[in-house]
Amino acid sequence: MAMKKLLIIIFVGLGIIPIFGQGEIDEQQKIFFRNERSFAFLLNSDGFGISFREAKRLNYRNKKYFEIEAGTIKHPKEYRDRNPYYQTPGTFVYGKMNFPFYLRGSYGFQHEMFHKADLGGVAVRYFISGGPSLAIYKPIYYKVLYPVSNYEFQIVEEKLDVITHPPYDIYSRASFTKGLSEMKLIPGVYGKGGLNFEYSKEEKLIHAVEAGLALTAYPKEIPIMATADNKSIYFSLFVSYRFGLVIDPLNPETNKISYIFRRKRTTANY
């Protein structure tokens, strides 16, 4: 009878051990908690911008993410110049009628092709995303010279008319705030894809370079220039620097943005 009780105690004990063992999350399990929150500076072939990304891990190699992006739209025929006959402040783009920029929201997917061997390595991932894009543009006002006498001019702030205002009639651009009440919107769609090279040497921080292609389409042309063809479809190359945090619910204190600037950082392996 004593032997029987001893065997029962042993089997019960063996059953309890795995239950307590579940409190120790191994590396394969910990990876599922590692979501991301990051920012990026973008340089496009037709402008520049910034973005914010919130990524959630689906499994060991895949993530889904939501991204918000804002930036400028540049026409390929934009060339900065000065008044050729007068000493004037600043430069201007002759023929530019409107200043455009964009706001985008997208849903994306990221797959890790090559994992880091250690914290000194580089993880290589590809990503694709798409969503709505809103083009916003405001008219540009210029300070135009009107002769009052042979030696005097009156400066009038008005929109550019390339037929009646040659470059030597432009003194400078007016304030950027001039024309804000006349902003217009054009909704569109966009998609992009590329590669992400993540090279951070610290577990909790993200440092990555991204490069790829983007395509944006609007139902009508964005009226940027008066003297050259404008476009409704934009195909561009981009490169960006991305930085941020790995979000870990087990260590909430390290999930704050201020953690990026702390001197003491975690250096444990993935």
Write the layout of secondary structure elements.
Blueprint: H1 2-21, H2 27-30, E1 35-44, E2 47-57, E3 62-72, E4 80-81, E5 92-93, E6 98-114, E7 123-139, E8 141-147, E9 153-159, E10 170-173, E11 184-198, E12 205-217, E13 233-247
Antiparallel strand pairs: 1-2, 1-13, 2-3, 3-6, 4-5, 6-7, 7-11, 8-9, 8-10, 11-12, 12-13
Task: Give descriptors for this structure.
single chain, 270 residues, mainly beta, Porin, 3-stranded antiparallel sheet, 2 helices, 49% strand, elongated, disordered N terminus, disordered C terminus
Helix fraction?
under 10%
Distance between the termini: 51 Å
| Molecular shape | elongated
**Tally of DSSP helical segments:** 2
Averaged pLDDT: 82
Report the order of strands and helices. HHEEEEEEEEEEEEE
What is the percentage of strand-forming residues?
A: over 45%
Q: Architecture of the domain at 28-77 and 104-136 and 183-261, CATH level 2?
A: Beta Barrel
Radius of gyration: 28 Å
Give the helix/strand class.
mainly beta
- Record the strand order, biggest sheet: 1-2-3-6-7-11-12-13
Q: Which fold name is given in CATH as the topology of the domain at 28-77 and 104-136 and 183-261?
A: Porin
